Amino acid sequence: MNAFGRKFRISVFGESHGAAVGAVLDGVPAGTELDEQDLERDLIRRKSGAFGTTRRKEEDRPQILSGVLGGHATGAPLAIVFRNRDVRSSDYTLFKEVPRPGHADFVAGVKWHDFNDPRGGGHFSGRLTLPVVAAGAVAKKILSPKMTVSACLVSVGGVGRAEALARAMERGAASDGPDENIGSGDPSQCRFSDSELWRPELESALAEGDSLGGVCECTATGVPVGLGEPFFDSVESLISHAVFSIPGVRGIEFGDGFRAASMRGSEHNDPIVSADGRSPRNGAGGVNGGITNGNPLVFRVAFKPTSSIRKLQHTYNFTSGKVEDLEIPGRHDVCFALRSPVIVEAMTALVLADLSLL
Amino acid sequence: MNAFGRKFRISVFGESHGAAVGAVLDGVPAGTELDEQDLERDLIRRKSGAFGTTRRKEEDRPQILSGVLGGHATGAPLAIVFRNRDVRSSDYTLFKEVPRPGHADFVAGVKWHDFNDPRGGGHFSGRLTLPVVAAGAVAKKILSPKMTVSACLVSVGGVGRAEALARAMERGAASDGPDENIGSGDPSQCRFSDSELWRPELESALAEGDSLGGVCECTATGVPVGLGEPFFDSVESLISHAVFSIPGVRGIEFGDGFRAASMRGSEHNDPIVSADGRSPRNGAGGVNGGITNGNPLVFRVAFKPTSSIRKLQHTYNFTSGKVEDLEIPGRHDVCFALRSPVIVEAMTALVLADLSLL
Amino acid sequence: MNAFGRKFRISVFGESHGAAVGAVLDGVPAGTELDEQDLERDLIRRKSGAFGTTRRKEEDRPQILSGVLGGHATGAPLAIVFRNRDVRSSDYTLFKEVPRPGHADFVAGVKWHDFNDPRGGGHFSGRLTLPVVAAGAVAKKILSPKMTVSACLVSVGGVGRAEALARAMERGAASDGPDENIGSGDPSQCRFSDSELWRPELESALAEGDSLGGVCECTATGVPVGLGEPFFDSVESLISHAVFSIPGVRGIEFGDGFRAASMRGSEHNDPIVSADGRSPRNGAGGVNGGITNGNPLVFRVAFKPTSSIRKLQHTYNFTSGKVEDLEIPGRHDVCFALRSPVIVEAMTALVLADLSLL
Amino acid sequence: MNAFGRKFRISVFGESHGAAVGAVLDGVPAGTELDEQDLERDLIRRKSGAFGTTRRKEEDRPQILSGVLGGHATGAPLAIVFRNRDVRSSDYTLFKEVPRPGHADFVAGVKWHDFNDPRGGGHFSGRLTLPVVAAGAVAKKILSPKMTVSACLVSVGGVGRAEALARAMERGAASDGPDENIGSGDPSQCRFSDSELWRPELESALAEGDSLGGVCECTATGVPVGLGEPFFDSVESLISHAVFSIPGVRGIEFGDGFRAASMRGSEHNDPIVSADGRSPRNGAGGVNGGITNGNPLVFRVAFKPTSSIRKLQHTYNFTSGKVEDLEIPGRHDVCFALRSPVIVEAMTALVLADLSLL
Fold first, then answer.
1. What is the assigned CATH class of domain D3-357?
2. Of A76, A230, A358, the CB nearest to D7
3. Could you give the percent of chain B with pLDDT greater than 70?
4. Nearest beta carbon to residue B7 from set C76, C230, C358
């Protein structure tokens, strides 16, 4: 179902080219300070416009319909709505007949008996992440100031951030010192525009009508010991559940992640060095037995390259019954992973807010 | 909470050294053919005893307390219990004072105010996967014969299956031809004992009192188009939620997984080539937009090395207030990943059974 | 939480004098025929305006923000919003200081630390039943044509419908024959305006600045055998759960209800007389062991008299610390039970739609 | 599904004549003092044996399989099992063919395609209330000492408790003063054996092979202001949901209940008379707007007469296709309502424990 959470709960609704997208948040603690401006900072981070992102421009102004009075949450459900405006639906009518590779066109048609809304991806659109980001901003207010959640791209198109940064400095695109905080558990400090760092890869893909993927790392600090359950609501279970709802995610790993499978126990085990559970290494990514251990929560998310590409592809035409050529027009991100960090943060904040209120 | 599923639901309970471990399954369709022997095949696969696994021997005989009559599920909840017998609790009393690196000793103590059961890992023990495997066997009966779920180790200690196999054939340990089905979407056909394939790595780790991790690949075939929801109950969300409940999982990836983040859209997109949605490549791992697309569901799970090792480690002693040496006695798997495939299958079958009944 | 349902799920939001009230419906089957006009019939029945109901006038026009395209549900969540317009908030500011007897003023203030929205009852207002009625209309479309749900007042202010009808005919207010269908399992056929039938009681209460309660009977026909679960999701459990969410409900009883407690088994037991489970008596109200038995589902709901009355009352003043006189101004229903039948129908339809889709 | 609760959750399983009945309790706070003796007091109250109850004798000894160590809850799920022993299954084989009036035989057969366990009512048996009572005893430990929950019969076979008491004193069966606490909000003080009070009614019904119903009143004291949610998890919603899971319930009403529908607002409204929300009248039964108001929670539950009676009945024979005579042999309660108070208390305690832990 289109809802998630136990005590702090989000329900999302909407379609890319319908009247609106939105979310209902249930369980926001009464008294949480909130107004529409509070959501702005994160909504701007999600916005398109940077090099490598779609040229669709939406004002993305949230309307809070309920649950807030005089700048505070009332305790009742909070409904947030975003009206859709810059919509060009004629682009999409074809895709019930010729489903786009990598998209949900085919599965939505089968699942919903061709009653699905195909315009702009309908309910499957990345535009649904807009209310998620707004909800995440509310969740961050609940966690604040104790916990912080921040995410950052660590690679795009297979090129790591350190390498991209070195190149950018060489070509003078990044002049005020290294963004050394990456990997240090504080990705909120990523000081350089991601689209600037990976501009060569993005330009090359754009020129070829192709697209790129990327990997996003998320870190939460200030997380107390004891959040999560051994079975089935481990912290990793809940975060991965939320994160795999973001369109285009292919994988998630915590701490040492897949690398842990090649390590020995004596390398991977985190020694505890203080009474508050701190470990200098944090190969577990801040979780033992499904429960937070007081170290920063660290995980990485793999995003696939944007499915909609200008480059010629082949797919099945359900009318002709043949495999045919397909060129996808319209406005698309070359690399939607560029916009992913704030979405990953939002999902993480939703989970942590729920767990911390239980 | 210790439960999972919407229409087909599992609740687990029990501790490693308590009276029993077990599960309650709600929503088993009336008429499903079932008896205790049906669970045997998978329970044996999970059992310890192979080279590289613990020497703790449990009979692991399930008692079905309810929900089955005359060889069929009745429609009422099915309770399965396994009594614990081969228990040596004196091994564990120390670990409230000196929490083991990589274990839940510390977090459980904080979360449950030192009322947690520390014996054998208590409720955090891998022994809880025993009722999960039994439940998975029931889920497979629900899916059968249409869908199959099978998993297999694809690497141990950083050595891939193909390489391990080539070596094993060389030394004469595997003589009846390659287990070529790995990677072909049918890991159920893994014909060689995993502990035989990776015997050199296991022997070396055992000799050093150390442990190994591994990667398990799971494939489900016969999955119809249309299972899962776009938000928040995508197939990947539900499977990762279930899989991260297995102790020791560090990562999960679907289809091309993390590799997708380095690919271009034109490489990663799966062209559809027939009216039933088939794609020759399946880089999406059988899911688009969170919904199954009719291709085999394929994902990989990274398991960390066993946390309990004989080799000397350091950790904090809460009585002395100092970091001290720790040697862990007792009977442990050198590589618990060896026992993981049937557990991963069980979790997958639980999710697919729930989705297919909704 | 402000949500209900397992496969067909409603979340409500909004406040009486805020921007809007609304609901998100998840799980509407793709292809269900729907448009805003479909909701009209029931929304009009809920509307105020009849004698004995409040003079607050709202246009009550639903906006469907998502989930419907071309007159059909798409399969994605359906969001319905009603903007509030005819709002006079100055009436309500007093009630944080002097909580009204029978209202949620006091409990909401304590629960939500005085951040609750007091205007018009805020989230506790009967206005929240507006999106419930709209959702119920959607649920009825799902049930249609197989199942029908209809409710009718059977007493107001202690005067039964039959007696009220006889009196009304006597005074010429009801001239076209008895509404004999009441009690026959088909309350949809109530042909007389309820406010006309009980006009004497309503006029008397209005004159005295007082209010009246009533009892509503609901019948669902065409319900198949087998909906509901023995524990804990019996049909009575789910319906009572939903019905007690309606503000002002004091009791619910199925079939013979409280009268059954004075009967003998030989009187109360329903003999089965045909292979489809029919019983001539239906003292069980259509449910055995928590599961529908194929007979009409019949239950009655007791509504208290409207809490807001003009007549002088006493209550505690939290500023003065004394019990003081209170006169409540504003526009209120003399008997909100007059508007309850369509709300009870809506809750019933929501439950039956959920059960029939599982 | 056979589970209930959000943070403190019960799952029940078992059949009357199967191997066992039991429950899994998830969310018991670590450190709650508990052992098997703690459950005894309530289990004895539920036991048969008093005049008017079945002669089936079960030891009803609970086995706690998990979640308790050294007399305290560990924080992990608590599984309680009761083995069935005194089983006479030959009594029941007939009822698939000739479903008993008032029983679930027919609906279970249809719902579960004749795979249901018919022996002793199977999963529909009142025996399932045994683990519920044990779970309720755990819930009471969580609520204790702040909150108390107690229930008492207020009428049997249509004869009120006061009248029954007066008669009993007259005939010398109740000699040590009136049980005046009934109606005073403290039914825990019911000092007289219920089966003694209503002995004349019970004897008469027994002689005729018939059965009786009754009404049970439940009161919870010490309930803080603020438990429950306006929509959909009102306190009345949750309690009625739980209570209607008890076999044989026909109605529930809070405070003035159905009588409120005949009252005027000026009579029914509870004036608040102190800063802690107290009202001298409590016609609301301790709840406003779905949220507890600090006054005792008071509600009544109507139980039907036992369905299984010796007296001749008629029902449909699915083999012959005719309505035929039926005499039900076996051991049954003349009035199972005699055993209901502790079950109603258990359900109430489960709800209050869940709400108080959220």
1. alpha beta
2. A358
3. 91
4. C358
